[in-house]
Write a structure and sequence with these properties.
There is one protein chain. The protein is mainly alpha-helical. Helix content is 71%, strand content 0%.
Length: 200
């Protein structure tokens, strides 16, 4: 077999391999890219990131507020840590413990951020700014009511023998903390908009 014949056969075989690679397996749905319709995974990841941003801003709001009234700047974190630690968390000054509390607070914000962003992006994506503001505010207040009065008010006493979170965080502070979280999520929402790439 001469060199030209060998090169021709190699080209034919390579073309056949490329053709086979391009064919979908029978019965296997063809993957579509970019995704059409609502891109759920994108919004879950974006909600997580934006939720952490919202939690960071609400924590900063609490730190500044605590400093203004002469409290420990991480008082909210001390109270927040009573869920896993009980009453002794209220007097803890250990940096490592408070750092873990901050991480848990931001993680909680990320989880709530997913639910918040999915609701806003799925049902109110095309709504006016006013509607989104009202809905976001209601979601923020709803998170506060559900967390404090439908979950923690009975769960913390049941597990740890005290109701410190509901008792130690004033109503207006708790409500504003959740509203600041929600308003921040709305403010940075445009950062997480999914722009479908143009397919040429």
């Amino acid at each position: 077999m001469d060199a030209q014949e060998r090169a021709r056969l190699i080209r034919e075989h390579l073309d056949a391999i490329e053709k086979l690679r391009g064919e979908e397996a029978p019965g296997r749905p063809k993957a579509q890219w970019p995704p059409q319709g609502y891109y759920l995974l994108w919004h879950v990841l974006v909600g997580m990131v934006l939720g952490m941003i919202g939690a960071t801003v609400s924590l900063m709001f609490n730190i500044v507020g605590s400093l203004l009234v002469g409290q420990n700047p991480l008082r909210l974190i001390q109270v927040y840590l009573t869920f896993p630690m009980g009453e002794r968390a209220l007097s803890t000054e250990e940096g490592a413990v408070l750092f873990v509390g901050c991480v848990l607070y931001l993680t909680t914000g990320a989880i709530y951020g997913i639910h918040f962003h999915l609701t806003i992006s799925a049902f109110f994506d095309a709504a006016t700014h006013r509607t989104r503001f009202l809905v976001g505010s209601l979601i923020g207040l709803g998170l506060w009511v559900v967390n404090f009065y439908l979950l923690l008010s009975w769960l913390q006493p049941l597990l740890f023998g005290g109701n410190w979170i509901v008792r130690e965080v004033p109503i207006w502070v708790a409500a504003l903390t959740h509203l600041v979280f929600a308003w921040t999520m709305l403010l940075v929402d445009s950062w997480g908009r999914y722009q479908r790439p143009l397919v040429t």
